[in-house]
Amino acid sequence: MSALEVRGVNKRFGGLQALNDVNLTVDEGRIHAIIGPNGAGKSTLLNCFVGRLTPDSGTVMFHGKSLLGIQPHQINQAGVSRVFQTPEIFSDLTVLENVMIPALAHRDGIFEFNAFKPLRRETEIRQRAIDVLEDLGMEDKTDMIAASMSRGDKRRLEMAMGLVQEPKLLLLDEPTAGMSRADTNNTIDVLRHIGDSRGLTMIIIEHDMHVVFSLADRISVLAQGTVIVEDAPEHIKGNVKVQEAYLGGAH
Amino acid sequence: MLGLSRNDFLLLLFVLVLVAAAPIFLNPFPEGSEFAQFNAGYPDLMQRFVIFGIFAIGFNILFGLTGYLSFGHAAFLGAGSYAGVWMLKLLTINVIPAIVVSTIVAGIFSVIIGYISLRRSGIYFSILTLAFAQMSFALAASVLTPITGGETGLQTALHDPRILDGASDGAGNIPAPSLFGLEMKQSWQVNVGDWLWTFNVGYYLSAFVLLIAFYIAIRIFRSPFGMMLKAVKSNNQRLSYTGISPRPYTLAAFVISGMYAGLAGGLMVAMDPLAGAERMQWTASGEVVLMTILGGVGTLVGPVLGAGLIKYFENIFSKINDNLLHQWFAFMPDGIEDFMVTIIHPFVGKGWHLTLGLMFMLVVVFLPGGLVGGLSGLYRRVFQRRSKAQ
Amino acid sequence: MELSAFLLQVLNGLDKGSAYALIALGLTLIFGTLGVVNFAHGALFMIGAFCAVTLQKILTHSFITLDETKTDFLGKPLKVKTPYVEEWFGQVAGQAIIDWAVPLAILFAIPVMLLIGFAMERGLIKHFYKRPHADQILVTFGLAIVLQEIIKAYFGANQIPVPAPEAFIGSLDFGTLIGFDPGVIIYPYWRVVYFIFAMIIIAAVFAFLQFTTFGMVVRAGMADRETVGLLGIDIDKRFTIMFGIAAAVAGLAGVMYTPINPPNYHMGMDFLVISFVVVVVGGMGSLGGAVLAGFILGILESFASMREVIEFIPGINQVVIYLAAIVILLARPRGLLGRKGVMES
């Protein structure tokens, strides 16, 4: 069964056709990678899924419900979480608080006037946040102010914020960019583990082919705003069209 | 204790001791001494300390946590004051209904203004709130005179209906606001040696309300709701991608701070049953902004300190005149005495604003983060240097 | 409403609109270039006005001679005050110089305001570029109070009348110029002068920013300060000069405003709040928006104070500026001509 159905999505910025009739089907429980050269429209496509951009035409259906024309927080509440490429964290707050906020959003919805219960009595949420941070090897950094962390740690925090929500669909925009090789491998293991154990659907944008081929069940190749190939990983490597797209030989 | 962590409980206890003992330690100089001028332990001023403290605590819940800078909170203070006087006129001279209704009316008023103003952020939000408050001020002073008493203000009168108290027979004095018969202006004076301490009913009622207001503020700061407000300040955009709608959170903070302002307005008229339009003017809104920044934005106790400091300057420095200066420096040779008086003269009395302005500048330059932020930073630096040396 | 009455209100709105536009222009320049919320900008307007007062005092500075031919009411020789300028330049020229004190004060005010602007920026504002807006507000508000108190200490708390040159006293019968009956549209000469003066200053500032390399760099810096800094251009020095210019514009607005409204020490604060509204309604960081909003709000204010309008909507004259601000900001999220992302966090 498909979790996400993208049909005929177009997006134009002035004279640039950023997305050109994009079609994409992501099956439930699968990890679907979107690859392509720089400027192919990968991040633009992701932005159309979370309400940051509205496509000019086309549909984006998530489990039969349209994701277009609704607010970002409604999309998230429908079960779509996004891990941003440039860390978008709450830099003045501690690491633990950064993770507790999405966890509370998952439990309480878009608004809850929870003004008198002390935060430290939210033991369940707190534990969940700590568990996720442990999974990502950040349990010793819980009380740090988020802004003071390294870029790689911020990326891992981003991931924790997405994972703690137990979303139905997780969108990852270059999750390992700026990470050391060891951290990258650890991240791959964590995502693999979560994908297997929870049957979580993921869309992952990535430049690092090592990450893509160790994770993806299926790969779509985007070039100049359109999907040129969609296939299983083993068929992508030798594909002529893909090589042309990356080497700039197409068109 | 009381649902607070140990540190927060100690902070509450500190504030409790502070306000309870204020009549004593605010009068450190013996009565009639040269420096009695610096004594602040008289009811009128102490009431102002705590009432503006409440106003600033509430303002800080909005500005300190969410970062939304309102330039129109005086409108809620004014609305609360008018509502309070009307309760004293129509219902009863007992201050309880006045204080409660002031808070509610200001709350309703802030729902309307907040709902509209929060459609914008940053400076656009500030200007919207300023515009609403200035409109309220102008209308209260002119068109709404039947409700507000216009430029003369609204006050209690002998022939007010006071439904719950029974009709006045038209003789005697205008009744003074009271708490179940205990008049707000009633005071007990205690002489200890040369010192004079005044314990005033109105002050202790206000101080009690301040403690409750402070306690609620601590609970809000430490709650999931408070954390969401901090997240609004930190990264509004991200919050919505996290599944939270920032708008209702900021509106809730706006209304809470508006209700604090109304509560302060209600207490003001409970102490002195008079409300004027100037209470809504932008200078009054600006004052609470300055109190909060001066004390420390986003800190718990900062706004109270800021409010106290500004009110102290306003009341004490403005009263110092040349005669007093000559008295103080009388021990010096005449030439130097005159010289000292000439030097200090521009900063006191009518020139107290100059001192206030200089204080603002000095605090921002040397204590970034206000009194609380700056002093704790200073403390940390000294402490760390010492621990490094060891 | 008659056309003549309409025109009269437009004219009446122009001089206040000019003052709003000039102050807002400087405010938005400082916002846009330095990212600083300058609550002391009203004080600069006020200091400008007191430049005119000071010059008038200097020019009328007199020595006293005894005129033996005349006696005062006590029978003593009459004391005659003669301003030094009359002694130096002769009576006619001297009196003319005194008469033209306000226009002359422009020459006096430009260097003074530039110096004050430079000193303010180098001495204080410079250290607040990276500080939160809250700190900028507190420190500039403190400075405004200090400046205000210093002026009060020297000049007292009362309004000080500063007359316009005699040539401009009286009114222009503007109506007759465009075919109305005499006496229908009457407009004081000095207000005409003020409006023209404001237009010249505004045009000069725009031309300076538009046509000089300096202005180009400043505009680039307003759009993206960091990148311009990376190009190896010393943007800080240019911003200091911009601050000086903004101070001079506010000061000149103050100088020329003195005959319209005798200055007092708190006139700056009175204009400050409305100027902020003007800047924001015009759109943060937009110079054209500030000027446009200044005139729109000035003219609206003048219309709202017409008797017919007040009878129709009581109290409208008091609130029209704020009402307009609310409507405009709700209809246009970033004001009339604002750009996205300026001063929104």
Note the gap between the termini of chain B.
36 Å
How much helical structure, as a percent, in the residues of chain B? Answer: 55-70%
- The order of strands across the largest sheet of chain A is 6-7-8-3-9-10
Task: Tell me what the CATH architecture of the largest domain in chain B is.
Answer: Orthogonal Bundle
Radius of gyration of CA atoms of chain B, rounded to a whole number: 22 Å
Structural class of chain B: mainly alpha
Q: Give the SSE order of chain A as H and E letters.
A: EEEHEEHEHHHEHEHEEHH
Q: How much helix is in the residues of chain A?
A: 25-40%
Assembly category: heterotrimer
Give the number of DSSP strands of chain B: 6
Strand content of chain A: 25-35%
> How does the major sheet of chain B shape up?
2 strands, antiparallel
Low-confidence stretches of chain A: none
Tally of separate domains of chain B: 2
How does this structure look, described?
- The complex is a heterotrimer of chains A (251), B (390) and C (345).
- Chain A is of the alpha/beta class and 251 residues long.
- Chain A has nine helices and ten strands.
- In chain B, a hairpin with a 2-residue loop joins β4 and β5.
- Chain B is globular.
- The two termini of chain B are 36 Å apart.
- In chain B, 51% of the residues are buried.
- The mean pLDDT of chain B is 90.
- Chain C has a two-stranded antiparallel sheet with strand order 1-2. In chain C, strands 3-4 form a two-stranded antiparallel sheet.
- In chain C, α2 (41-59) crosses α12 (267-282) and α8 runs antiparallel to α11 (235-257).
- Chain C is globular.
- The chains are: A alpha/beta (251), B mainly alpha (390), C mainly alpha (345).
- Chains in contact: A-B, B-C.
- The B-C interface holds B 63, 67, 69, 116, 119-124, 126-128, 130-132, 134-135, 138-139, 141-143, 282, 286, 289-290, 293-294, 297, 346, 351, 353-354, 356-361, 363-365, 368 and C 37, 124, 127-128, 131-135, 137-139, 141-146, 148-150, 153, 273, 276-277, 280-281, 284, 314-315, 318-319, 321-323, 325-326, 329-330, 333-335, 343-345.
